[in-house]
Write a structure and sequence with these properties.
Layout (H helix, E strand, L loop, with lengths): L16 E2 L17 E8 L14 H12 L7 H6 L2 E11 L6 H15 L7 E5 L1 H13 L11 H4 L4 E3 L2 E6 L11 H21 L1 H10 L19
Parallel strand pairs: 2-3, 2-4, 4-6
Antiparallel strand pairs: 1-3, 5-6
């Protein structure tokens, strides 16, 4: 299955995004093998920087660093997919300015809802950044559900327990793009949240957990105190 074949924007009404950079993942995957769905902000201005655009893509490079910080033995985006993690953006086009309008997030949340529906076995939604959080909250409200993530600063709410579609929802910071290199504290918290996401999968899928450990894809497989040391971030 290729998500791009099932999720398409037909009218492009948003005024603060670049239609030329519209992109939905076009990777061939088995949706039943996806257990973590990581949703970030918006597609990059240059499609060549997207998650699945190749080893030189900026989103791919910073994402690999984030998973490596968390202890994952990964060298490519295919390795991350192989661990049951699918990455996408809440807004499918690149933005024209710093922020993204509420109407844009709301419109794109319809596309995101279709995309989420492709994956029946998700155990964790890793919502990185305010745009992803808002988009999922819009989806919940349209379906008569309460907001998934409450209002508040990410550092204050990221320790809470939230659910969406009977799965855990974890708010975190954006790992895609050049901003990843700026704040080391946020980078450490991103790594912690990635590990937390995998721990939820481990707790719900013991057979999968044994497979992760057997394949030795983690440097310190699922230890309680496994956050990256400060030295690894310097």
């Amino acid at each position: 299955m290729r998500p791009a074949s099932n999720v398409q924007c037909l009218d492009f009404p948003c005024l603060d995004t670049r239609r030329a950079s519209n992109i939905v993942p076009n990777v061939d995957i088995n949706p039943e093998n996806i257990f973590i769905l990581l949703i970030s902000e918006a597609a990059p201005e240059n499609p060549a920087d997207y998650y699945y655009a190749g080893e030189n893509a900026l989103f791919a490079q910073t994402t690999l660093l984030a998973f490596q910080d968390a202890g994952a033995k990964v060298a490519s985006m295919q390795d991350i997919l192989g661990m049951g993690v699918y990455l996408t953006t809440a807004v499918k086009c690149g933005k024209t300015g710093y922020g993204i309008a509420t109407d844009t997030i709301q419109h794109c949340s319809h596309l995101l809802e279709k995309e989420i529906a492709l994956f029946p076995n998700v155990k964790v939604y890793l919502l990185v950044g305010d745009v992803a959080i808002k988009a999922v909250n819009y989806i919940a409200r349209r379906n008569g559900e309460p907001r998934v993530i409450p209002a508040g600063s990410t550092y204050k709410i990221r320790g809470g327990e939230f659910t969406f579609h009977e799965a855990r929802a974890l708010p975190s910071y954006v790992q895609a793009g050049s901003a990843f290199f700026v704040e080391k504290v946020k980078r450490r918290m991103i790594a912690e949240d990635i590990r937390k996401a995998f721990q939820v999968v481990v707790d719900s899928l013991p057979q999968r957990a044994r497979r992760f450990t057997k394949e030795k894809k983690w440097k310190r497989p699922f230890k309680n105190d496994s956050s990256p040391s400060r030295s690894r971030l310097n």
